[in-house]
């Protein structure tokens, strides 16, 4: 590829400002804890959703779940073996939860992609990946003009898992076991606004039980262009 425009792969004052604003807001919130990882900005908050809200979202996922695809649309035979679906953005519960995530982070709702639901059965996993877009990918030109790079990820665990199913950050040497109702928030960018390779993460295989999550990815600009 000769004409890659690498404005999504390098430092960016605009993306740095997004990181700074969210970080400042989360640091002020007494319900939110920073996870101690020197090279990654990552925060957690328990009881972000109550049991009824988790059950409601699990039912929406059960109703819509299809075998997961990868963003690239490539075959995902063993890379992302979960079932997933985009949740209806006009569903009242989805609207409430999306608004709550925006209020927690301070990020504009128009920058947020549709909430995506995911369900992992025993043995299913999502192998190590970064949520930001590689600028060398064939889909980057389209992403550039429809909101640009992904900045923060917000992910909520909707079920406890009896064994396995942790979200693992291998470069940071920690993993988070699912806790029903807990939200995890991390910045896919470094403080200077360049993609952070240390945000690499995986969903470890579920060993016992069933894992449900919803994920919301925030673009640096309005999603959809
Ligand atoms: O299920 C998890 O723990 C991680 C999910 C994830 O990485 C994603 O949806 O991008
Ligand atoms: Fe991810």
Automatic annotation (TrEMBL):
Sorted UniProt keywords: Dioxygenase, Iron, Metal-binding, Oxidoreductase, Vitamin C
InterPro entries: Oxoglu/Fe-dep_dioxygenase_dom, P4HA-like, Pro_4_hyd_alph, Pro_4_hyd_alph_FE2OG_OXY
Annotated ranges, domain Fe2OG dioxygenase: 111-220
Molecular function terms, GO-annotated: iron ion binding; L-ascorbic acid binding; procollagen-proline 4-dioxygenase activity
Taxonomy, superkingdom: Bacteria
Cofactor (UniProt): L-ascorbate
Entries under Gene3D superfamilies matching the protein: q2cbj1_9rhob like domain (2.60.120.620)
PROSITE patterns per the UniProt record, alphabetical: FE2OG_OXY
Pfam families, per database record: 2OG-FeII_Oxy_3 (PF13640)
Protein name stated in the entry: 2OG-Fe(II) oxygenase
